[in-house]
Design goal:
heterodimer; A: mainly beta; seven-stranded mixed sheet; four-stranded antiparallel sheet; 11 strands; B: mainly beta; five-stranded antiparallel sheet; 0% helix
């Protein structure tokens, strides 16, 4: 069974640009969550999608957005990139997104802003 | 905002030693607690999910307990091995869905 796949693995952008990250969940998983990790910080919750609907959102500015497609694949978009957006972005999937289910993480996309 | 705290921040133990870490969280609105292991250059791997007060889970040499009334969980590793070296993350759900708050982790290094 294939795991959670995130693309690209690495990305370099400059301030002001925008970026789109992709996440393919485990087959059969309908919940996809996104997290940001910066040095010294724990994983910060960005948002969670289930059946193409954003069900939960963390405390991030509107420059961070996402969507989920009918096949459960999800994309995350960050517009007007800032230096502070440099981070590891992780995606995680679970079958139904119920809080008692473990999440399965991808390897992440490391985004560097110059 | 839910505050999840883990201690210690980092830990060095000798191979064969047993060790434990703590995760503290607000006891109100608790739904579930997760433990993950995150090895360098890999993705976080789920260890345990616990929901009930008094829950105990075990996986090989690793076990965890949960006290929802006082808001803490312990993770124990018996007879640490070098392959146990990783960051151990605790995450708490305060609602029914996957909106979790992670602690900053405990980084364990097991010295051969």
């Amino acid at each position: 069974k294939a795991g959670v796949t995130q693309t690209p693995r690495y990305l370099i952008k400059t301030r002001g640009q925008q970026v789109t990250l992709s996440c393919s969940p485990i087959s059969g998983h309908r919940s996809v969550s996104w997290y940001q990790q910066t040095p010294g910080q724990g994983l910060q919750f960005l948002f969670e999608y289930f059946s193409e609907t954003q069900r939960n959102k963390g405390n991030f500015p509107g420059r961070f957005s996402g969507r989920q497609f009918s096949n459960s694949r999800s994309e995350m978009n960050v517009s007007t990139l800032e230096l502070g957006d440099s981070a590891l972005y992780l995606c995680a999937s679970s079958r139904s997104g119920q809080g008692g289910q473990p999440q399965h993480f991808g390897d992440g996309t490391r985004l560097s802003i110059l | 905002i839910l505050n999840v705290e883990q201690s210690p921040q980092s830990l060095h133990v000798q191979e064969g030693d047993s060790t434990n870490f703590t995760c503290s969280f607000p006891s109100s609105n608790f739904y579930a607690l997760h433990w993950y292991r995150w090895e360098t250059a890999k993705s976080p791997e789920a260890l345990f999910v616990m929901t009930l007060n008094g829950d105990e889970k075990k996986k090989g040499r690793i076990s965890a307990t949960l006290n929802t009334k006082e808001g803490y969980s312990y993770l124990y590793i018996k007879g640490s091995q070098p392959e146990d070296s990783a960051t151990y993350l605790c995450a708490v759900n305060s609602g029914g869905y996957q909106k979790v708050t992670f602690g900053t982790g405990t980084k364990l290094q097991v010295i051969p």
